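lol forgot to send this yesterday, sorry. struct tokens for the thing we talked abt
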């Protein structure tokens, strides 16, 4: 899959990246370049400022520190300071799962591009899905803490890790003398630049029906109230188990991919037909009443809306295929160009 890496995680070593262009401008003495990917002042600032603030404000009683790994500067500086005060403080680094965008953090693979030696400052690593980051961020917002997706990303990692510890009966090892586990995670973003992305990653049931919606009609002539009870969703595993035999699409199954042409040409489910125009897709669905038809979009939200408008049996919406295909290692057609330049993002 070809993705604009400048939009997700820029490569500091790419001579064509904006990071390198910033360096060239700095070399011309026209601008100042902070160089967060290789400037030792990045982790040093967290060692001198953020780490001491955390330790002092918690009255020297902290059991765990957690943050996402992007430039890794915050983890290096804070972990170094905290462990100098108490070597038992547990430091958990968070990466994103492949092909699961979250602004800021990187995948384990993309951390290889970072020049800092960050590995020795971690006790453990955990990876998180995009939807976990955004749904947890939304929960923070609704509790009154206006924090963005990378903040939800870190909190989701904490909750996931504590569940793992509980299953392994190792939770007590993290407690202080009062039986508490005092955990700090960084909230270093806001949700405002990413509002549209919440509607792509967060499941629809997280957005309850608006009360007094009629009061909005004076500003809007349209009202969005899809019939969610009609939506029939299917997971990636279920689709590949039911619709394929020896990686071939069964004859009684049809898959319509309603993403844009470029996305379809980069990668798609084997046997999927590209139908970007939803009106045409609706006509195709109405023509086929036998067998099963599956609608595919990027994350499953647009396809769910599509399915909700047609009261039709055996019409399914595929959920989370774009983000889960790599983790599940599901078969997919990839363009020759993508095969040559494929990088796990």
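and heres what i got for the seq, position by position
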């Amino acid at each position: 899959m070809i993705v604009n890496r400048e939009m997700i995680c820029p490569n500091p070593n790419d001579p064509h990246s904006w990071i390198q262009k910033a360096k060239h401008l700095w070399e011309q003495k026209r601008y100042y370049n902070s160089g967060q990917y290789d400037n030792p002042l990045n982790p040093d600032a967290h060692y001198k400022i953020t780490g001491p603030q955390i330790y002092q404000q918690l009255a020297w009683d902290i059991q765990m520190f957690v943050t996402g790994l992007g430039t890794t500067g915050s983890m290096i500086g804070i972990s170094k300071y905290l462990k100098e005060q108490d070597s038992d403080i547990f430091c958990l680094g968070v990466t994103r799962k492949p092909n699961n965008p979250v602004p800021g953090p990187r995948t384990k693979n993309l951390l290889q591009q970072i020049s800092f030696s960050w590995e020795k400052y971690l006790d453990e690593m955990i990876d998180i899905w995009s939807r976990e980051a955004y749904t947890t961020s939304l929960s923070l917002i609704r509790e009154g803490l206006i924090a963005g997706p990378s903040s939800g990303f870190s909190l989701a990692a904490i909750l996931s890790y504590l569940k793992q510890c509980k299953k392994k009966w190792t939770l007590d090892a993290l407690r202080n003398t009062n039986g508490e586990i005092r955990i700090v995670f960084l909230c270093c973003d806001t949700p405002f630049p990413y509002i549209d992305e919440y509607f792509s990653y967060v499941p629809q049931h997280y957005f309850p029906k608006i009360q007094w919606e009629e009061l909005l009609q004076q500003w809007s002539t349209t009202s969005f109230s899809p019939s969610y009870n009609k939506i029939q969703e299917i997971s990636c595993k279920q689709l590949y188990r039911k619709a394929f035999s020896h990686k071939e699409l069964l004859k009684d199954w049809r898959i319509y991919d309603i993403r844009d042409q470029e996305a379809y040409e980069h990668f798609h489910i084997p046997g999927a037909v590209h139908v970007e125009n939803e009106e045409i897709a609706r006509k195709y669905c109405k023509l086929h009443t036998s067998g099963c038809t599956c609608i595919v979009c990027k994350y499953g939200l647009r396809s769910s809306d599509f399915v909700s408008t047609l009261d039709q049996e055996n019409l399914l919406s595929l959920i989370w295929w774009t983000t889960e295909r790599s983790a599940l290692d599901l078969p997919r057609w990839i363009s020759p160009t993508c095969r040559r330049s494929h990088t796990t993002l």
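The chain has two domains: 34-196, 228-339. anyway ping me if u want another try
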